[in-house]
Design goal:
The complex is a heterodimer of chains A (514) and B (136). By secondary structure, chain A is of the alpha+beta class. Chain A has helices at residues 6-160, 166-336, 361-371, 374-383, 392-405, 444-448, 450-457, 508-513; strands at residues 419-422, 430-435, 475-480, 485-491, 499-507. Chain A has a five-stranded antiparallel beta sheet with strand order 1-2-3-4-5. Chain A is rod-shaped, with a radius of gyration of 71 Å. Chain B has 136 residues and is an all-alpha fold. Classes of the chains: A alpha+beta (514), B mainly alpha (136). Chains A and B meet through helix 1 and helix 2 of A and helix 1 and helix 2 of B.
Chain lengths: 514, 136
């Protein structure tokens, strides 16, 4: 080691430590993030698993419900078929009853017509019989008169005694024979009259009964016709119920298909969630492995940190006489205005060291003394161009400021990135000055965040002046070019995010006069 | 996490590049000792750690893909469940009409069936009216 310049080695080792610290910090953050992502994913998987269980349960319920309902619908459909069959039979029976009624009616219509014809014949017979009877009666009367005359003539002849009464006798006998015949004829006519009367009575009774039969048959036809309408209505209702039942079964079939699909989907869901869970477990193993390796790597960083810090101490001790001389020159340079030198012991200088996290007014004044040459440069070179890239400014201009503006020799600065200036032209008003002075400032980058405070810059105006590695005063300077004023903010402590305004709306001219 | 991992890999590369860079200016026994005891094992562990994290990330991406599919499947299953419910509700509503028509049909059928004997009784009465009065 003796063949190397101790000051150069200090810088190398310090930068190495910085790199390790950055890696360490980023590794820790990454592991935290990985752990968070792992836990979040596990939670999502658990939720998905829970949801899958609910979906599966619902699918089972739906399937059972569909099965129960379908059974009921099938039973109703069977009743509908039965009802349709029964109503068809009833309709057929009703039709037959109507046919029978119509047949009966037709029959009795014919019977009635025959009965009426019979009555008409009987009436004619009666009329004929009555006429014959009248004629027979008259014939009897005439025969009696003829017989009476013949009898008187024959008796008269007999009383005369001397005459042959043969012709009178013959006439009397003939008259008697005619009378007998007339009486026989009358007798027959009376019998015929009686028979005809009876026939008329029978025919009239027949007609009357036939009329009654026709009336009853007519009633039967009416009833049967009405009943047929009822039977038809029953059949129609049964057909409608059967049709609706078909729709019900169709809907049940669709529900059954959907339920089967739901069950199948739920099973796929469970399967894929199980796979996701398995993969999450696998990822957990990788994370555990990474965590173990990170612990191990962090252990090396810690050990190396101790080792290198110890070596830096040795190198500083080796370089002690030179440093003290330079320290004197620095103090002298600042006071006299001649080019001062910065060294690794700048932290011990009164104008940059702070005893607490909160800077005193005096300390701020000291800080402004350092910053005052920076700002004119900044205003002319950065705001004037209205263009600045974050990051590069600190790297490139920081050194330039030290050399050209502050008139400090870079070789004496403990860190090549000892002064950072950051700006963000997009918001138009950012001035960021960061003075980092000690190589023992291990927490400085953490204080400003990853990447030397780049992220903090993104909120618009932040900046910092850090002058002591362990006791840092962090200031933010916000310049408003439009009003040509600036505001000084101070962070209340190293880790806080809140910034407190300590000087507001100070005219830039006043600051530049400093 | 992808950004963080990328950033970690960047910082890992920065560190290794810086180590390579300073090797040219600092290559004594002390440097060898520090490399052998700390930096080389650290490099190995850090690399394996990164690989493990990459695998974890890849695996979690697969998990996310599956979770997305699972979400779609769950949504589809819920939609099907809703469809089942809607179909059954429609079926139940239609069933009310089935019962209504079935009941009416039963009533009409019963009435029609009970009327048939009465009709035959009237027919029989019509036929019986002329029983004692023969035709002429």
């Amino acid at each position: 080691m003796s063949s190397y310049d101790p000051r150069q080695l200090i810088i190398i080792i310090e930068d190495l430590l910085d790199c390790l610290q950055i890696w360490s910090s980023v590794a820790r953050d990454t592991l935290d993030e990985a752990d968070w992502v792992q836990r979040t994913t596990r939670e999502y998987v658990d939720r998905a698993s829970h949801r899958a269980a609910i979906v599966k349960s619902q699918a089972q319920k739906d399937e059972q419900l569909v099965s129960a309902k379908k059974s009921r619908y099938d039973s109703v459909a069977a009743k509908c078929v039965e009802a349709a069959t029964e109503t068809k039979e009833t309709l057929a029976e009703s039709q037959k009853a109507l046919d029978d009624a119509n047949q009966t009616y037709t029959r009795w219509e014919l019977e009635l017509a025959e009965a009426i014809a019979w009555l008409e014949r009987a009436m004619k017979r009666l009329e004929t019989a009555e006429k014959e009877c009248e004629r027979a009666k008259k014939a009897v009367q005439r025969a009696e008169e003829e017989a009476d005359k013949a009898s008187r003539r024959y008796n008269s002849c007999l009383r005369d005694g001397d005459k042959s009464c043969k012709s009178e006798k013959r006439a009397y006998e003939n008259a008697q024979a005619d009378l007998v015949q007339a009486l026989e004829r009358l007798k027959r006519a009376i019998r015929e009259l009686e028979a005809a009367g009876l026939e008329v009575q029978r025919a009239q009774a027949r007609v009357s009964n036939c009329q009654r039969a026709v009336e009853l048959a007519e009633q039967a036809v009416g009833d049967a016709q009405h009943n047929l309408d009822i039977a038809r209505q029953a059949e129609k209702m049964a057909a409608i119920s059967l049709e609706f039942s078909g729709i019900v079964q169709q809907l049940a079939k669709q529900a059954e298909t959907a339920a089967e699909q739901e069950t199948s989907t739920a099973e796929s869901l469970l399967s894929i969630v199980r796979e996701a869970s398995k993969l999450t477990d696998e990822a957990q193993l990788y994370l555990s492995s990474a965590s173990d390796l990170e612990d191990s790597a962090q252990g090396y960083v810690s050990s190396l940190n101790l080792e290198l810090t110890s070596r830096i101490g040795s190198l500083i001790a080796l370089n002690q006489p030179v440093s003290e001389l330079e320290a004197g020159a620095i103090v002298k340079g600042i006071v006299s205005g001649s080019p001062p030198r910065l060294s690794s012991r700048l932290a011990h200088l009164p104008h940059v060291a702070t005893a607490t996290d909160v800077a005193s007014q005096e300390e701020l004044e000291q800080a402004f003394k350092i910053l005052s040459p920076v700002l004119p440069y900044y205003l002319s070179s950065i705001i004037g161009k209205a263009s600045c890239e974050i990051g590069k400014v600190g790297e490139q201009i920081g050194t330039k400021i030290l050399e050209d503006v502050m008139d400090l020799r870079v070789v004496e600065v403990t860190n090549a990135q000892g002064v950072d200036i950051k700006a963000q032209d997009k918001v138009g008003s950012l001035v960021a000055v960061e003075v980092k002075t000690s190589m023992q400032d291990k927490n400085f980058s953490q204080l400003l965040g990853k990447g030397y405070g780049h992220k903090q810059c993104s909120n618009g105006w932040l900046k910092a002046v850090g002058v002591n590695p362990n006791q840092v005063t962090v200031l933010g300077i916000h310049i408003n070019p439009q009003s040509e004023t600036f505001t000084i903010y101070q962070r209340m402590d190293n880790k806080a995010k809140d910034w407190n305004s300590i000087m507001s709306d100070v005219p830039l001219s006043q600051f530049l006069e400093r | 996490m992808e950004d963080e991992l990328w950033f970690l890999q960047q910082k890992y590369r920065d560190l290794q590049e810086y180590r390579a860079e300073i090797r040219a200016v600092w290559d004594d026994s002390a440097a060898h000792e520090l490399n052998g005891r700390y930096l080389n094992p650290h490099e190995a562990d850090a690399e394996m750690m990164q690989n493990a994290l990459v695998k974890q990330l890849d695996t979690l991406e697969q998990v996310n893909e599956k979770l997305e599919i699972a979400s779609k499947l769950a949504h589809f299953a819920e939609k099907l469940s809703l469809e089942v419910s809607q179909r059954l509700t429609s079926a139940d509503e239609t069933l009310v009409d089935v019962y209504k028509n079935l009941d009416l049909s039963a009533q009409y059928n019963s009435k029609a069936k009970s009327n048939i004997p009465l009709i035959y009784r009237v027919i029989a009465s019509a036929n019986d009216v002329c029983g004692d009065t023969p035709a002429g």
